[in-house]
Design goal:
Mean pLDDT: 93
Structural class: alpha/beta
Number of strands: 12
Largest sheet: 10 strands, mixed
Number of helices: 10
Number of domains: 2
CATH architecture of the largest domain: Alpha-Beta Barrel
Order of helices and strands: HHHEEEEEEHEHEHEHHEHEHE
CATH class of the largest domain: Alpha Beta
Strand order of the largest sheet: 1-2-3-4-7-8-9-10-11-12
Radius of gyration: 21 Å
Strand content: 15-25%
CATH topology of the largest domain: TIM Barrel
Shape: elongated
Bound molecules: S-adenosyl-L-homocysteine
Length: about 350
């Protein structure tokens, strides 16, 4: 997926280069396609288990060209079945990827992937941006998260809601999602990208009608408060963000979801709900309300379920479809906002 110069691994190579690498070791070009298919479709992450390949080819690839560059550095599982992987890249940097099995057996899992090491947006309620941005992930490093996820089980959906701001590493993300669509079969309606919503970037991306659903993290109907809660958006009025959402819908025909983290006593009052409703009424959008998940570095309250429900009712009475999303994976620190670059100490 990149020139692979820094880290030679099978999935870091463009398909043509990967074929050449296989041929150079005595294999056939179609063996490269078998390797891609075994990993992407069947979750096999070990050449030794790819028995459709000649034994000599398996041995020489295993010795000289690792399949993926990342290694699983840690794993935590919570009682609800959510699995959080800490993946380490050759430069020692790590990201987290979360595998969330469906509550219905046999329905596959949702994978939550990261796009950056750290995050430059620095929302005060989120652990991912605590130390700012370290670096962007390469396209193949995003792809590898999907391969590790697929190795845990079938994937039915994915959400680009892990560490990082997807629009600030969009080129690499777009290349990775093209692979995910073509090789894993998660297409336009099965992947959701969540962003703080830079209007000009969204306008440019909407032109290309990319194969994913869009979610915009709003968090407040009021400019000043949004700028506090989403510091990288300082100076961009909420109206401009909503207009970018409207433009997205007009160009792609796909409805937007607005995400709203409910911070007890901060942005969860009835007044906030009413002002949010006024902003959204008449727009083609739904709202996901995410009760704050405690992060040790931040001092926000977690709203009670009654308070969350009241907020939702105000929106509903204004004709806006809203759902309260209680995050999964809390005991493994794998819930929204709890992902960071290193395992919690
Ligand atoms: N950078 C992207 C993806 C972030 S994760 C974005 O901002 O959209 C997905 C959602 O989880 C975002 O809406 C984010 O604001 C929210 N979130 C972050 N920290 C949280 C926390 N501690 N509790 C609940 N939701 C949180």
């Amino acid at each position: 997926m990149s020139d692979g110069a820094s880290v030679p691994s099978f999935f870091a190579l463009e398909p043509a280069a990967a074929e050449a690498a296989v041929v150079a070791r005595g294999g056939k070009a179609f063996h490269a396609r078998i390797i891609r298919r075994e990993a992407a479709e069947r979750g096999v992450l070990d050449y030794a288990r790819m028995t459709a390949l000649p034994a000599a080819l398996r041995a020489s690839l295993a010795a000289e060209l690792p399949l993926v560059s990342a290694r699983e550095a840690a794993r935590r599982e919570s009682r609800d079945g959510t699995i959080k992987l800490l993946l380490a890249f050759p430069d020692g940097r790590t990201v987290e990827t979360v595998y969330i099995p469906s509550r219905t057996a046999g329905k596959g899992a949702t994978l939550c992937v990261s796009t950056q090491v750290g995050c430059p947006v620095r929302c005060p309620f989120c652990a991912s941006g605590k130390d700012g941005l370290v670096r962007n992930l390469e396209a193949h490093e995003i792809v590898e998260q999907y391969l590790f996820g697929r190795a845990l089980g079938a994937l039915s959906r994915s959400v680009v809601m892990g560490i990082g701001e997807p629009l600030l590493n969009f080129e690499n993300l777009a290349r990775a999602l093209e692979f995910v669509r073509a090789e894993i079969g998660l297409g336009a309606r099965k992947t959701t990208v969540s962003t703080v919503g830079f209007p000009e970037r969204l306008a440019r991306i909407a032109e290309t009608n990319p194969p994913f659903q869009l979610a915009i993290s709003l968090h407040s109907p009021d400019d000043e408060q949004r700028w506090e809660l989403v510091p990288a958006m300082k100076g961009v009025p909420v109206d401009d963000v909503l207009a970018a959402g409207d433009d997205w819908f007009a160009k792609t025909g796909r409805e937007i979801t607005y995400e709203y983290v409910l911070l007890g006593g901060t942005n969860d009052s009835e007044g906030h709900a009413q002002r949010l409703a006024e902003r959204l009424v008449g727009r083609r959008a739904t709202v996901n309300l995410i009760p704050y998940n405690p992060v040790h570095l931040a001092q926000y309250g977690r709203p009670s379920s009654e308070r969350a429900e009241n907020f939702r009712m105000v929106l509903e009475e204004a004709g806006i479809v809203a759902t309260v999303r209680w995050s999964r994976g809390m005991e493994a620190d794998a819930a929204c906002g709890q992902l960071r670059m290193r395992p919690a100490r």
